[in-house]
Amino acid sequence: IIDKKSLNKFILPQLKGIKALESAFNMAVLDWWGQKKGKTVSNLLNIKRKLIPPTSFTIGISNLDDIGEKVEEARPYKILKVKLGTKNLDKKIINEIRNHTDKLIRVDANEGWSIDNAVKLSFWLADQNIELIEQPFPSSQLKNTAFLKEKSPLEIYADENSLNSFDIPIIKGS
């Protein structure tokens, strides 16, 4: 396989229409192409970088003592994406990050919240310079997502329950 068209013809059917996989594959190909050409992907695609929205640096769930180091590693980024969804540590994680920075945070709850504490936690997060909450509940709990979306001061985003465009009408109301 020597050209992009042949590569796509070979790989894309194996990804079974899952857009996240197709996107990951395309990003990998563009990254490889850029490395071979000695250019950034934005230069390869002739994209004006000033028009690209800022991306985030992800801080995964780990030991609280490691957070300061992670925040320091994220220094070049304007936005942090913080993985939450723990039983008892979510507030402690955010508080520890706030001990080091006041950067805007996007929360990814990793399907780890229960409806019992989600509304209260969303209000607390709204006071912590949080932009949004991603996937607070398991993907099958669309009613809980709709309820939280109605009550929360923060926007709620889907992730795991949106594998391809056919899922959008199902999750649209939640």
Structure report:
- The protein is an alpha/beta fold and 174 residues long.
- Helices cover 42% and strands 13% of the residues.
- The protein contains eight helices and five strands.
- The chain has a five-stranded parallel β-sheet with strand order 1-2-3-4-5, covered by helices on one side.
- Helix 4 (67-73) links the parallel strand 1 (56-59) and strand 2 (79-83).
- It is globular.
- The protein starts with a helix and ends with a helix.
Based on the structure, what is the oligomeric state of the protein chains?
single chain
Q: How would you describe the shape? A: globular
Strand order of the largest sheet: 1-2-3-4-5
Mean residue pLDDT: 88
Number of helices: 8
Helix content: 40-55%
Largest sheet: 5 strands, parallel
Q: Rounded to an integer, what's the Rg over CA atoms?
A: 19 Å
In total, the number of strands is 5
Terminal-residue CA separation: 43 Å
| Poorly predicted runs of 5 or more residues | none
Compressed to H and E, one letter per element, the order equals HHHEHEHEHEHEH
The fraction of residues in strands falls at: 5-15%
Alpha-beta content class: alpha/beta
Labels describing this entry:
174 residues; alpha/beta; 5-stranded parallel sheet; 8 helices; 5 strands; globular
